[in-house]
């Protein structure tokens, strides 16, 4: 069953077209990757899904309904980890989680969640003194505190070292196994390959292809997802230039 | 606990961990008052040239209501807007926007903490004035409290205009400090209102801090209420609060 449906989404800022035509569906319980070059419209797409930005046109359905119909209740269904969001540097881990828990009607257990994201030893550490990986773990915890059905994670592992990325991947799999559907925005192909059940490649604000990572590789006759991804972009850009007869 | 109560408690915790904010809110007005009392010469002399309504007062007495005005202005124009500017800069406002209660409540929480800390700063200044400067308690405490609340509303609204637009904590702090220094002059920090040349006093009556300090001085020493300045305070509060609410930037 589709938990998210996006069809012909379009979003512009003045004369800049951030998203021209994006279409995909996300199935319940999967890890769905949104891939694409910088500036392709990935973040704008998830901002529309999470109700933070109103689309210009096209349709979005979250569990069968327009996100706007939910009003603020949407955020009880969707936990959103923003690409660029920090906390006050002196706010401690446990205080941050406690504060966010108070914003939801049925939050998860604070201590359990801190344990689950592996920050038990850092619970009294201020945000400003956390490592990059620890900050990301905290932001994942904050996206999950409200017990959402869907977690949208934007550029989660950017800036992390290989070990930090591997740990974060493990955490994301655990979250999926607990029944949360995950939408993962990334520009790392190895990350998409290891983690995602399906991916959608977005380029210049348009969906190039939506498929499984392995199918993308097979279709390109390539060896790595990187080859296949670049091949898919070439095909997409090539077809974009051709005028229909 | 409700969302607002938890956010307010968090804001209070963050305040105690910020030494600059603690100093500006709780100590700066008192330090200024003590400087005026003990370092600047001649402030324990009787007021001369202030007109009959201030006969029998010492110069330092005139500085006490001004210290309260400074307590309101310091928090309203520096701590308050820089906290909100910082939340905008760090994406805290956007992040809270993606929660069921939204980001409005953190503004209310910050406003509550600002109101509480500026009141505490004023209390420290008054206590110090009574203990160290031999000041007398105002006869009409209720009126003083009322004017204080109105003054705090006026200056927090002015601070809110800065908070509504500033892109970062630093921008907010810079702009707020500039406003604070400028308005400390009109408040009478260098020359108390009653001792200002008439032209300056009249101009100052139409500035937010000048009006506030003049009305507060009248209330404190039980003199006739300056209605024009009172109207000026109310007008500024309405205008600033409206502008802040209409132009507030969430991103």
Number of domains of chain A: 1
List the uncertain runs of chain B.
Answer: none
SSE pattern of chain A: EEEHEHHEHHHEHEHEEHH
* Shape assignment of chain A: globular
Number of helices of chain B: 10
Task: Choose one word for the global shape of chain B.
Answer: elongated
The major pleated sheet of chain A works out as:
6 strands, mixed
Distance between the termini of chain A: 37 Å
Largest interface, counted with CB-CB under 8 A?
A-B, 27 and 25 residues
Classify the helix fraction of chain A into a percent range: 25-40%
Average predicted confidence as pLDDT of chain B: 90
DSSP, total strands of chain A: 9
CATH topology of chain A: Rossmann fold
β-strand percent of chain A reads 15-25%
What is the top-level CATH class of chain A?
Answer: Alpha Beta
Structure description:
The complex is a heterodimer of chains A (245) and B (251). Chain A has a single domain, classed as Rossmann fold (3-Layer(aba) Sandwich). With 245 residues, chain A is of the alpha/beta class. In chain A, 38% of the residues lie in helices and 25% in strands. With 251 residues, chain B is an all-alpha fold. Chain B is 74% helix and 0% strand. Chain B has helices at residues 3-16, 19-38, 59-89, 92-97, 104-132, 141-165, 169-187, 198-204, 208-220, 227-247. In chain B, helix 2 (19-38) packs parallel to helix 5 (104-132) and helix 3 (59-89) runs parallel beside helix 6 (141-165). The radius of gyration of chain B is 18 Å and the shape is elongated. The two termini of chain B are 28 Å apart. The mean pLDDT of chain B is 90. The interface between A and B is medium-sized, with 27 and 25 residues.
């Amino acid at each position: 069953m589709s938990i998210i449906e996006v069809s012909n989404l379009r979003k512009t800022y003045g004369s800049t077209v951030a998203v021209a035509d994006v279409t995909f569906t996300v199935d319940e319980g999967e890890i769905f990757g949104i891939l694409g070059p910088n500036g392709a419209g990935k973040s704008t797409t998830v901002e529309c899904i999470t109700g933070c930005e109103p689309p210009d046109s096209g349709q979005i359905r979250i569990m069968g309904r327009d996100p706007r119909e939910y009003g603020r209740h949407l955020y009880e269904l969707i936990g959103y980890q923003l690409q660029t969001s920090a906390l006050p540097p002196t706010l401690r881990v446990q205080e941050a989680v406690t504060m966010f828990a108070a914003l939801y009607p049925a939050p998860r257990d604070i201590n359990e969640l801190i344990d689950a994201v592996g920050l038990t030893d850092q619970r009294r550490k201020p945000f400003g003194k956390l490592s990059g990986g620890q900050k990301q773990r905290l932001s994942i915890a904050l996206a999950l505190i409200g017990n959402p059905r869907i977690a949208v994670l934007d550029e989660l592992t950017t800036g992390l070292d290989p070990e930090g990325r591997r740990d974060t991947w493990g955490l994301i799999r655990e979250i999926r196994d607990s029944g949360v559907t995950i939408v993962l925005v990334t520009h790392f192909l190895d990350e998409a390959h290891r983690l995602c059940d399906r991916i959608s490649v977005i380029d210049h604000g348009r969906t190039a292809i939506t498929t499984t990572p392995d199918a993308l590789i097979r279709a390109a006759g390539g060896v790595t997802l990187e080859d296949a991804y670049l091949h898919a972009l070439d095909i997409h850009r090539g077809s974009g230039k051709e005028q229909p007869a | 606990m409700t969302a607002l109560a938890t956010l307010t408690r968090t804001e209070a915790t963050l305040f105690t961990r910020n030494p600059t904010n603690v100093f500006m809110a709780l100590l700066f007005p008192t330090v200024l008052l003590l400087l005026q009392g003990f370092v600047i010469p001649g402030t324990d002399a009787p007021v001369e040239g202030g007109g009959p309504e201030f006969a029998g007062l010492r110069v330092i007495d005139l500085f006490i209501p001004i210290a309260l005005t400074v307590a309101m202005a310091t928090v309203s124009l520096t701590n308050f807007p820089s906290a909100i500017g910082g939340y905008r800069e760090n994406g805290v406002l956007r992040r809270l926007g993606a929660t069921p209660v939204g980001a409005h409540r953190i503004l209310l929480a910050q406003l509550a903490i600002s109101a509480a800390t500026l009141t505490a700063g004023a209390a420290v200044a008054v206590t110090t004035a009574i203990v160290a400067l031999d000041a007398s308690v105002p006869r009409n405490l209720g009126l003083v409290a009322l004017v204080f609340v109105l003054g705090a509303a006026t200056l927090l609204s002015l601070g809110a205009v800065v908070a509504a637009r500033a892109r970062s904590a630093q921008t907010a702090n810079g702009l707020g400090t500039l406003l604070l220094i400028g308005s400390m002059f009109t408040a009478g920090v260098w020359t108390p209102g009653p001792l200002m040349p008439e032209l300056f006093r009249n101009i100052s009556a139409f500035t937010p801090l000048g009006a506030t300090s003049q009305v507060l001085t009248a209330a404190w020493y039980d003199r006739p209420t300056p209605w024009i300045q009172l109207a000026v305070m109310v007008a500024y509060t309405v205008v600033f609060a409206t502008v802040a609410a209409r132009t507030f930037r969430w991103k």
